[in-house]
Amino acid sequence: MGKITGFMEYLRQETSSRPPEERVKDWEPFHIPLPEAVRREQGGRCMNCGVPYCQSGIDWEGSVFGCPLHNLIPEWNDMIYAGNPSHALARLLKTNSFPEFTGRVCPAPCERACICGLYGDAVTIRENELSVIESAFAAGAVKRRRPPQWSGKKVAVVGSGPAGLAAADQLNRRGHSVTVVEREERPGGLLTYGIPNMKLPKTVVARRVELMLDEGVSFVTGVDASDPAVARRLLNDYDAVVLCCGAEKPRPLGLEVEEGVSGILYGTEFLKAAVERTQFGKDLTVPSAEGKDVVIIGTGDTASDCVATALRQGCRSIVQLVRRPREDYLKNGALPLDYAHEEALAVLGEDPRRFGIQAEGIETEAGRLAAVVTSDGDLLPCDLLIAATGFSGCEGSVCDAFGVSYGCTVSTAENSFAASVEKVFAAGDMRRGQSLVVWAIAEGRSVAAEVDAYLMGYTNLVRTV
Fold it and tell me: How far apart are CA 55 and CA 109, in angstroms?
């Protein structure tokens, strides 16, 4: 423990942000890193508890406390305070394949389990983590790590989201020849297409993919594994196949909509189109929010990202319908504002959220959406309705192509990632259902351990799930 009394001497200090009225004018990241001396103080706030719950990864009554990756948090916090970046990096990469992703988009269940938070403010674990990996990249300290020898075994990973990338990374380190098959034009899955650039720059995803390429992983894009011919080829040509296709089947909106009515999108559909339009220069038929009255149904990160994206596209107005009552979201008597709601308040003059209200119907004019009818009798003008209501499970097309059993998710053996078809495994949201990026990485690392043992008869990879 670098600073025995650090948790008493230093106050929690988070990174500052560009003013919301300024940052909505672009798609660039808006957090401003802390000076190194202040960041070291934040590392010094870690108490190095005898039982560090921050790295426990406990799923308790539907809520997660602690890191599912079992990150060695007190160790690298200690190294941050001591000014030893190389040791901090080594301890961080021992358990986390992609801290540059989790350091940006993880909701930090580790901080909810921090003992400092019981009587004050938790340690800034997520921001400390991001500072370690980004400082290392900037200093050229993140080097390629190729396996000392190849096993002669070939593994296909279907899907290049966080679970697929983590599985590919770990299997490659064990010397297996890994090919990642991706349906889209670019690797990254939801990291590339489902998270706005201001939260996770696409250059950060591309940087990691380029590093993995240099380490020996192959990527094949634009190939849809739901094609039975593609599935047969993968089963014939590879010693193991890992399915990491996510849980992209959206939860039904629950409204009666006439066929052909335009102006209704799912959240991920809206966000993907925004990324392709702004980052990759595509001209799409999917409508943007520019000049429109927008209504968003749902809460959570996807809904917030839709709010922030609609503001940047220049919407005329925006309303977010939240099913649960306002009291459920209060913290110490106040209603927290995330980055998107701060921006809406600055640009439009009000918090867009309306609590305890649901959409009960829509009105149309000439085949186009015109208004949303709410449960309290309001008629909200609406040109664009975005359903950010979560996901009901994985798409069945890939499962059918490989012949694996599935319901909402792929069926696997108890305490195993093995699917119902020989040498086929599943991990990530496709196996556990809609979850966090950090859980997807944990699943990817864990399925890699099981696949490695299947191929070699033993493994020295650590399974955390």
Answer: 9
Q: Give the Cα separation of 384 and 371 in Å (integer).
A: 9
Could you give the 3-state DSSP secondary structure of residue 342? helix
* Sign of the dihedral defined by the CA atoms of residues 235, 237, 243, 248, in that order: negative
The amino acid occupying position 95 is T
Residue 140 DSSP class: T
Task: State the Cα–Cα distance between residues 303 and 266, nearest whole angstrom.
Answer: 10
> Percent of the chain beyond pLDDT 70?
99
Measuring CA to CA, how many Å separate 16 from each of 13, 20, 32, 238, 339? 9, 11, 5, 48, 12
- Give the model confidence (pLDDT) of 200-238 as tens digits: 999 999 999 999 999 999 999 999 999 999 999 999 999
Alpha helical stretches, state H, 30-72: 36-44
Do the strands 368-374 and 359-365 form a parallel or antiparallel pair, or are they unpaired?
antiparallel
User: Mapped to the 3 state alphabet, what secondary structure does 185-253 carry?
Assistant: CCCCCHHHHCCCCCCCCHHHHHHHHHHHHHHCCEEEECCCCCCHHHHHHHHHHCCEEEECCCCCEECCC
Q: Which of 173, 155, 152, 154 is nearest to 243 (CA)?
A: 155
Cα 124–chain centre separation: 19
d(CA 54, CA 69): 10
pTM of the model: 0.95
**Dihedral Cα 417, 418, 424, 430, nearest 10 deg:** -40
Write out the H or E segment, with its range, that includes residue 446: helix 437-456
> Terminal CA-to-CA distance of the chain, rounded, Å?
29
Cα gap 252→389, rounded to integer Å: 8
Kindly state the helix (H) or strand (E) to which residue 91 belongs, with its residue range. helix 85-93
Residue 3 exposure: Cα atoms within 13 Å on the Cβ side:
20
- Taking alpha carbons only, the member of 147, 158, 157, 151 closest to residue 176 is 151
The mean pLDDT of the chain is: 95
Identify the CA nearest to 323 among candidates 264, 387, 370. Answer: 387
Give Cβ neighbours of residue 108 (< 8 Å, ≥ 6 apart): 125, 126
Specify whether the CB–CB gap between 241 and 155 falls below 8 A. yes
